Amino acid sequence: RKEVEQDPGPFNVPEGATVAFNCTYSNSASQSFFWYRQDCRKEPKLLMSVYSSGNEDGRFTAQLNRASQYISLLIRDSKLSDSATYLCVVNAGNNRLAFGKGNQVVVIP
Amino acid sequence: GAVVSQHPSWVICKSGTSVKIECRSLDFQATTMFWYRQFPKQSLMLMATSNEGSKATYEQGVEKDKFLINHASLTLSTLTVTSAHPEDSSFYICSARSGDRDYEQYFGPGTRLTVT
Known about the structure:
The structure holds two protein chains of two kinds. By secondary structure, chain A is mostly beta strands. Chain A has no helices and eleven strands. The termini of chain A are far apart. The model of chain A has no long low-confidence stretch (mean pLDDT 92). By secondary structure, chain B is mainly beta. Chain B has no helices and eleven strands. Chain B has strands at 4-7, 10-13, 19-25, 32-38, 45-51, 57-58, 67-73, 76-81, 90-97, 106-107, 111-115. In chain B, the strands form two sheets. In chain B, strands 2, 4, 5, 6, 9, 10 and 11 form a seven-stranded mixed β-sheet that branches. In chain B, strands 1-3-8-7 form a four-stranded antiparallel β-sheet, with no helix packed on it. The model of chain B has no long low-confidence stretch (mean pLDDT 91). Chains A and B meet through strand 5 and strand 10 of A and strand 4, strand 5, strand 9 and strand 10 of B.
């Protein structure tokens, strides 16, 4: 089983709509979780950390479900500039981060 | 915020030659640096972890004699791809972490290597 699994999509989202996606992780001992954003041919950039109680940053909401070992990201009021690949990242132990393949989001005008 | 640079941003080389990629943390001291590789439509794959002044720890399946990593200072790590082959063509990304941050890594802009 892969350390982090994501449905690559693409997720085609009308501008202004809400989109949500999950990723699952295999290591139940993982303690740190992140969502990164990666634009085409660019490096990943930290979007937000994911806390146990869930957290919100503007139009972005992240949730963690430890029992089911998944993390979710919800984007409200999608903008064209939100088009990117969203990488689910999990602390894999030994100072390592494990990356999912990413959820590709395409916001359509 | 923390800034990490990489040089070169892209390189084309002939099969059999070696290529060196530099990764620098510009405004913080990076006790740990990481080297990743990303093939098209794939996730980032960790190649190795390097701590300043010590030998790098390579992930399973990564040839340490082919991918030479040097982390001689707290702001510079280098990755040398020796005897490059076309299958080494990829997007190489470094990241850096300062000692007191909880797994938060700052990524360089990446180096696109094409081996002809």
